[in-house]
Automatic annotation (TrEMBL):
Key words, A-Z: Oxidoreductase
Domain spans labelled Aldehyde dehydrogenase: 17-479
InterPro entries cross-referenced by the UniProt entry: Ald_DH/histidinol_DH, Ald_DH_C, Ald_DH_CS_GLU, Ald_DH_N, Aldehyde_DH_dom
Keyword flag Chaperone: no
Official protein name in the record: Aldehyde dehydrogenase
GO molecular function: oxidoreductase activity, acting on the aldehyde or oxo group of donors, NAD or NADP as acceptor
A Pfam family hit: Aldedh
Length: 492
């Protein structure tokens, strides 16, 4: 990789590349080689303060919130065009910084980045930011105004994708944004900052300051920040929500998941298992919306376990730079330890390892866990109730449609899910009964970014993407209009 992309010396603050306030630097370690492949400065509270101050000035006094929606749309569309040209760079950086298999990068790391900017550019050209309401002899003007300065905190599994899910609608709304990339994967988001600057986003409207948890808390509690948009663990989300509550600060949270794929008795059970196994292993299982519980008809359970084990054993695991690899390493040694701990807990609780369960023999270096299938799992086990964030799939038997829905809903989470059946109409009926933010029928996923994504219960608060994603960065104001200010249509 180009050293310019992997070794960053400055932050992007106030529209310029700015030296850090402190001297600490963070080595970025490749999960596949365990070697340092890059370096970034570590944000101090002073760096966060500078970024927020720049965003505050750009919002309070700058042109961005005051541009016509069409003018903002033109800049967002230019950003999309620049980002498309840089997709290969984004993909390569994420391979090195967090271990994403290059074969998975178009789906996980780049495929929705430019598309999200294009979507919001198109949306705000026709979005109703104002409407007039007439009630008898009174008239009101209802306006949607940008919420203000947004602090966007993103995780390491899809850093640029998830930054775009926040930055694109926030910018479309007229907000200014301070993005805090994660310490595990801080490099790829600098390409996003470069693209936005090249597209013509005014100075101060976007800042990029990677940092640790302390930097994130300083951003969350900063009085100059009006809203926090966060993607990450439920534990971190609880903390952020509590901190925002002290200031009654706006917050949206996209958190963890333990999503269920409900396989009904009329489905081709053996036929769907390779698809379900492949989906659960995407990005080495480090996906919040992964369908990590598969609920199977008890009469077909043995057949399903055999098919799942065969599918897992056939998945190529190895160097994430190799296009033939489908499962690369986990992001960090601590993450591998966490996954191995959950597998041990499952076995101790009575589950059976049908495939995988350990480190691949042919990969002595790197933080790998083989694609793992756990059979004989009961939904009360920790492995079925807690988010593992690794290549582990739990197979749980059910005793019919009602029982499957009960098990699917017996979870503290509700982010994603699926239904597999030979009768699509039956699939829709079951999908309506599952308490989750998005759900696929026979692998037909909703058309993101045009529809919202987010969770029920402990999977989060609010929605990203779709028109709902734009509205989450808007405040609503009602203005009483004197008769003289009514529009001609309201007077008639």
């Amino acid at each position: 990789m180009d050293d310019r992309l992997m070794y960053r010396r400055e932050f992007f603050i106030g529209g310029a590349w700015t030296p850090p306030a402190g001297g600490d630097r963070l080595g970025v370690i490749s999960p596949s080689t365990e070697e340092v492949v890059g370096e970034v400065p570590v944000a101090t509270p002073a760096d966060i303060d500078r970024a927020v101050d720049a965003a505050r000035a750009a919002f309070d006094d700058g042109p961005w919130p005051r541009l016509a929606p069409g003018e903002r749309a033109a800049i967002l569309a230019r950003a999309a065009a620049v980002l498309r040209k840089r997709e290969a760079e984004i993909a390569q950086v994420t391979v090195d910084e967090m271990g994403c298999a290059i074969s998975q990068a178009p789906r996980a790391q780049t495929g929705m980045v430019a598309a999200t900017f294009d979507y919001y550019a198109d949306l705000i050209r026709t979005f109703e930011f104002e409407r007039e309401v007439v009630a008898g002899d009174r008239t009101g003007l209802v306006t949607s105004e940008p919420v203000g300065v947004v602090g966007a905190i993103v995780p390491w599994n899809a850093p640029v994708t998830l930054s775009s899910w926040k930055a694109a609608p926030a910018l479309a709304a007229g907000c200014t944004v301070v993005v805090k990339p994660p310490p595990e994967a801080p490099l790829s988001n600098f390409i996003l900052a470069e693209a936005l600057a090249e597209a013509g986003v005014p100075a101060g409207v976007v800042s990029m300051v990677p940092g640790d948890r302390a930097a994130g808390e300083h951003l969350v509690t900063h009085p100059g920040v009006d809203k926090i948009a966060f993607t990450g663990s439920t534990a971190a989300g609880r903390r952020i929500m509590s901190l925002c509550g002290d200031q009654v600060k706006r917050v949206s949270l996209e958190l963890g998941g333990k999503s269920a794929a409900v396989v009904l008795d009329d489905a081709d059970v053996a036929g769907v298992m390779p698809t379900l196994v492949g989906g659960a292993m995407h990005l080495s299982g480090q996906v919040c919306g992964a369908h990590t519980r598969v609920l199977l008809p008890r009469a077909r359970y043995a057949e399903a376990v055999e098919a799942a084990a065969a599918a897992a054993a056939a998945i190529p695991v190895g160097d994430p730079h190799d296009p033939a690899t489908l499962v690369g390493p986990l992001v960090a040694e601590r993450q591998r330890d966490r996954v191995e701990g959950y597998i041990a807990l499952a076995v101790a609780a009575g589950a059976r390892v049908a495939a995988g369960g350990g480190r691949p023999d042919h990969l002595p270096k790197g933080w790998y866990v083989a694609p793992t299938i756990l059979a004989d799992v009961d939904n009360s086990m920790r492995v079925a109730r807690e988010e593992i964030f690794g290549p582990v799939l739990c197979l749980i038997p059910h005793d019919g449609e009602d029982d499957a829905v009960r098990i699917a809903n017996d979870s503290p989470y509700g982010l994603s899910g699926g239904v597999w059946t030979g009768d699509p109409a039956r699939g829709l009926r079951v999908a309506r009964r599952v308490r989750t933010g998005s759900i696929a029928i026979n692998g037909s996923y909703p058309p993101f970014p045009a529809v919202p994504f987010g969770g029920f219960k402990m999977s989060g608060l609010g929605r990203e993407l779709g028109p709902e994603g734009l509205r989450s960065f808007l405040e609503t104001k009602s203005i009483g209009l004197p008769a003289a200010l009514r529009s001609p249509a309201a007077r008639s």
